[in-house]
Amino acid sequence: MIRVMIAEDQALVRGALAALLTLEDDIEVVAQAGDGRQAVELGSAQQPDVALVDIEMPRLSGLEVVRELATVAPQCRVLVVTTFARAGYLQRAVQLGVWGYLLKDARIEELTAAIRTVHSGRKVMAQELMIEAVTKANPLTERETEILGLAKRGLATKDIAKRLYLSEGTVRNYLSDAISKLQAQTRQDAIRIADENGWLL
């Protein structure tokens, strides 16, 4: 029996997935989480074989859940199931060691097959996203991505500098480099471009 946890903040989607997966003879839904923090707590308590994790959730993002599950439930294999067809999300998910990445418009037969494949030790990735991920790499450095992400949350230059123990001039230089690399006109434009590509979270 494959023990599965579902981490999805939309109650209707979460319930529908659980109901459909319960119909499978070899799959048991052992936990349902409505936010990222609950997913980590339930993952630690239930030790599922496979976790279905959405990317954008309250309290902790799906990618943060992936990182924490690696510590609290190391045997759990994560399969990201999301509406976001963004190459940047896939790239970061792969870097964190996910076993699969599917879009929510996949058929239930594809999802159950992916669960079995991941449980058997093989990876499953949406082909259309794999092609885009290879051809559309993030041009930003880790620091530029971090600073743009903080700017996205509304932090001013001085607040970013204080948080990262940098000078305001250094932060402005990183922002300027990010704007240039993304061929943006303004800081907000750079945030929009990076966000649409899934390079920020």
Key structural traits:
single chain; 201 residues; alpha/beta; Rossmann fold; Arc Repressor Mutant, subunit A; six-stranded parallel beta sheet; 10 helices; 53% helix; elongated
How does this structure look, described?
By secondary structure, this protein is of the alpha/beta class. It has two domains: about 1-135, 3-Layer(aba) Sandwich (Rossmann fold); about 140-195, Winged helix-like DNA-binding domain superfamily/Winged helix DNA-binding domain (Arc Repressor Mutant, subunit A, Orthogonal Bundle), CATH 1.10.10.10. It contains ten helices and six strands. It has helices at about 10-20, 35-45, 60-70, 85-95, 110-120, 125-135, 140-150, 155-165, 170-180, 185-195, and strands at about 1-5, 25-35, 50-55, 75-80, 100-105, 125. Strands 2-1-3-4-5-6 form a six-stranded parallel beta sheet, with helices on both faces. Helix 5 links the parallel strand 5 (about 100-105) and strand 6. Helix 7 (about 140-150) crosses helix 10 (about 185-195). The protein is elongated and about 60 Å long.
Write the layout of secondary structure elements.
Blueprint: E1 2-7, H1 11-22, E2 27-33, H2 36-46, E3 50-53, H3 62-72, E4 77-82, H4 87-95, E5 100-103, H5 108-119, E6 124-125, H6 127-135, H7 142-152, H8 157-164, H9 168-181, H10 187-196
| Sheet with the most strands: spatial strand order | 2-1-3-4-5-6
Q: Summarize the main sheet.
A: 6 strands, parallel
CA distance, first residue to last residue: 34 Å
**Coarse shape:** elongated
The helix content, as a percent range, equals 40-55%
Secondary structure category: alpha/beta
Using DSSP, what is the number of strands?
Answer: 6
